Amino acid sequence: MEEVLATLLQYVDTAMVGQLGEQATASVSITTNVTWLVNSVSGAVGTAILVLISKAAGAGDDKQVKKLSQQALFLALASGVLLEILSLILCPYIPVWMGAEPAIRNQASCYFFIISVPLVFRYVSTVLGASLRAVQDTKTPMLISLAANGLNIVLNYFLIYPANLGVDGAAIASAVSYALSGILMFVSCRKNRQLCWKLREFSVDRKLLAECADVGMPVLGTSMVSCFGYVVFAGLVSGMGTTVFAAHSIAVTAETIFYVPGYGLRSAASTLIGNARGGGNMKRLKTVGILSVLLTVAVMCASGLVLFFGAHLLMSLFTPSRPVVDLGAEMLRLVALSEPFFGLMVVLEGIFYGLGRTRYSFIVETVGMWCVRILFTFLCVRYWGLGLRAVWYCMIADNLCKAVFFAVPFLTKRSRVRQWLGRS
Known about the structure:
Layout (H helix, E strand, L loop, with lengths): L1 H17 L3 H8 L2 H27 L3 H29 L3 H4 L7 H12 L2 H16 L4 H22 L5 H26 L14 H33 L3 H38 L2 H28 L1 H6 L5 H15 L2 H16 L4 H25 L4 H24 L4 H6 L3
């Protein structure tokens, strides 16, 4: 539910801005992949914190949990401030690097600047939210997402329409909601019995930071490889024209809510696998792994069916442009058929994370993104002159390959993962 609510924030922005026309949609969408790239750092830190805290909690080491909670806050603030400064400096150049048409560059730059102002709050929200989930408090982050999204919806309406601020109004609404989310997540961690620590006890523990780096750096590498790939991927599509890029961007956004349940289940799998690993309960570990895969694939089969039959209606919610709606709906029907494989990929990656084996994910992401998606998209667009359908086929092929690569270690009898799972 938290993942769905977070996605709604992006939905609201896209839907309301979409009513302003194709140029407004492109202004918001052109920097989306760069935003994902910036957020990848907080995502990597959050994953490392989740893995280590869940393991310590499973082992019943309350002192270690509190120490890791301190490192989580330090890492969120340090990385958040650094990336915020960098984002604000580079905001005039990013739309140009992304291949935006001259008509939308200023607006896109202004949008990215505004949503980057509260970046440190976004980092705090992501990392401390992972800390709460690691101690199996998933309701609090969900409620915070609900509050942030509610505020965003209200501010979106008043700032975009009555205040007539357009794209800038959408950016301001998002920025305020990010700030609220970060503040509430910090307060919630301070009130949590397992995570709370006295201010005079705060210290930076180099050993724990080294552990975070050992787990988190491969995750960051995975995210960076993925996000740079998405940036290149979007850049290739943006050169196909404003209408095609608008259809592509809206379709990507529309699809999001249908695969985010997989990411929610991935977080649950990572947490429970980490708890079982910390407690040395191998029977529980294997049971959680099997049930996570079955549940995730079942959920993604259902979401894929809904996406397939509701593609046209869904696209029409985001834009009044008929060509954009028709083209985007066609792409959504294609990708709907691959949702179960996407879910399998996501949940298996979560199991690897819970086991603390993050390096393999980096290898899989690198091969899938750059040797499948980017390479063949480049050939389709620049050499073979194919349309958006071919581009989405490349995207689907990437997801299918990753699902296979993640499944192989669990199916091969002599694999290290399978041997590790069999230990008692």
